[in-house]
Structures are given as structure tokens and as C-alpha cells.
Amino acid sequence: MFGKGEELLKLTEEHSCLISDIVIMKELQTTNTTKEEIFEKSRKILKVMESSSSRGLKESVVSVSEMSGGDAKKVYDYANSGKSLLNKNLVTAMARGFSTSEVNASMGKIVAAPTAGAAGILPAALYQAREMIGCDEDAHIRGLLTAGGIGEIVARNATVAGAVGGCQAECGSASAMAAAAIVEMSGGTPEMSLHAASFAFINIMGLVCDPIGGLVEYPCALRNASGVMNAFVAADIALAGVKSLIPFDEVVEAMYKVGQLMSPTLRETGLGGIAATPTAIELRKKHLNQED
Ligand code: SF4
Predict the structure, then answer these.
(1) CB 157 within 8 A of CB 252
(2) pLDDT of residue 289
(3) Which of 133, 154, 116, 124 is CA-nearest to residue 50?
(4) Is 180 helix (H, G, I), strand (E, B) or coil?
(5) Where do the structural domains in the chain lie, given as residue ranges?
């Protein structure tokens, strides 16, 4: 039904509808399911997302390696201290991003959206957006479906894997998905959603994947927290009426090409970037018994 952003946009124009409507239509056409079943399944997904993005706010969730954890609670407590520079909603959104990352690193249950490494961004962005906008569950579900439509286009035409395209592909995709969803939840047009998705990629193009010891922990949790912010920034820029000079499909292609140009040491091998710093090498020895 659609494989590119341009086709998705054309369909929304032809049907005078939202991106989520087209994603629902596609699901109905390609799977043996009903609209009610799609919404019910989405509700279950959101429940897991809610749980993973809130667990770390109340308790310190430490990773299996014991190398990281507890930052979601610190950031959440800070959000509630009244001292943060960003407003409380956005700092809470960051805390939620940390939370799912910590639950993932502790082998807890998360929704890989689009991957486990970037699983913190979409739940945090969508939950916080819902709270800030004051929309209902149906709009939240539609946000999830819109995010899925954007993720599908990226996966089809480029990659969502850090091992293939760096963190720009993984956290970048999650941010782009979330940005498009926030725009729709806020009442923006499908065109604005695609602009927001473009901005999310452009803002972090070239971001490398450099997890210490090859574990999805550090700097992954930080990238999830900042990825949530990137989604809000991109959504707000698009909602303000700013248009991406470069169409979404071309941005996705550029992101993929940048990923191909990256050294393999910067694509999830844990051999470059932050992972190759002297302190990271010490941490590997201490927590993972890994030698050089
Ligand atoms: S640094 Fe690599 S492993 Fe970590 S979140 Fe980014 S893409 Fe995933």
C-alpha cells in the first residue's frame, strides 16, 4: 500500500485522513484482523511500554553487569525538585527514556520499538505527550500506529539497526517515529508529521553506535533520554510550521548512506567512540572480565 513517505502522504491526501488511518487500512488489507483487534493489540503493547517507562522512576533498576542503572530515578526526582532547567514534563520524559533502557539492561520486559536498544524513546515520548496534550487513549494508540508506519518505511528503505547504520539508525528511527506520532497527537497534519520525522534524523545524522563492551547500556540510556528530547524538538519545529527542505525519503536514504560510510568500529562492535576510551576499557575489565 505504501513503501515510501511520499506514497504515505499521497494516500492521506486522497482519503483526507491521518497517517494512523492509512496504517490501520494497511493492517486490515494485509492481515486477517479487525480494527477492534488492532486497537486491542496496541493497548497491550502500550501497557508494556507504560510499565517499562515508569518502573525506573520509583526504584533503582540496575543492569545485569551492574555497570549502569538508577539514573531514571535520579532524573525523575530532579524533575520533581523544582530546580530543573527544562520544564518538569520534559525532564520526566527523559526519566522515562532512562527507565525503559534500564529495564532492558536488567533483562526486563520491553517493547522493541523499533529495537531493544532504542526502546526507551517511543514509550517516554508518547506517554508524556499524552499527558501534556491531554488526549485520550484512542489518540495514544493512533500515535503508536503512526510511529509504526514511519518505522516501517525506514526499515524497508534503510535500516533501524545500530550494527548496520550506527545509533542514528536506531535511536534516530525511534525519535523520527515518536516525532511523527507527537505531531499527529497534537493535531498536526500528516505533512507536518513527515517534516518532524525528517528533522529528528537530520538533528542527529552521523550519530555513532559505541556501547561499552558491546552491551546495550552505556551510552545507550543517555541516547534514549536525549532521543526523547529530539522527538519533542523535531515535533515542535514542525508544528511551528517549519518545513524540511529535504523530503523525508531522501533524508532516510542519506541516513543509510552515512551509516554505510561509518567505520565498523562505530557500528555496535564496542571498538570505537565512547567504548574505546581508557575508562571504558577499565569498566570492561572490571564488570565484564573483558581484556583488550
Ligand atoms: S549506542 Fe548502539 S547499542 Fe546503544 S542505543 Fe545506540 S545504536 Fe543501540
Answers:
(1) yes
(2) 85
(3) 124
(4) helix
(5) 5-288
Mutate to test the pocket of ligand 1, among 104, 164, 170 (most ligand atoms within 8 A of CB): 170
CB neighbours of 114 closer than 8 A, spacing ≥ 6? 151, 154, 155, 160, 170, 173, 174, 177
State which residues of the chain have pLDDT below 70: 292
At the top level of CATH, the class of 5-288 is: mainly alpha
Cis-peptide into 219, omega within 30 deg:
yes
Residue 70: per-residue pLDDT: 97
Q: Which residues contact 282 (CB under 8 A, 6 or more apart)?
A: none
Ligand 1 closest atom vs CA 101:
5
Which residue's alpha carbon is nearest to atom 8 within ligand 1? 117
Distance 15 CA to ligand 1 centre (A): 38
CB 231 within 8 A of CB 200: yes
- Distance between CA atoms of residues 205 and 207, nearest Å: 6
Instruction: Calculate the dihedral angle through the C-alpha atoms of 43, 44, 46, 51, rounding to the nearest 10 degrees.
Output: 140
| Cα distance between residue 160 and residue 167, in whole Å | 9
Q: How far apart are CA 193 and CA 189, in angstroms?
A: 6
CA of 270 to the centre of ligand 1 (A): 10
Q: How far is CA 19 from the centre of its chain?
A: 18
Residues 6+ apart with CB under 8 A from 160: 114, 115, 118, 151, 154, 169, 170, 173
Which cell numbers in the block locate residue 268? Answer: 555496535
For ligand 1, say whether the CB of 211 is within 6 Å of any of its atoms. Answer: yes
**Distances, alpha carbon 140 to alpha carbons 1, 133, 279, 285, in Å:** 23, 10, 41, 43
Per-residue model confidence (pLDDT) at position 292? 67
pTM above 0.90, yes or no: yes
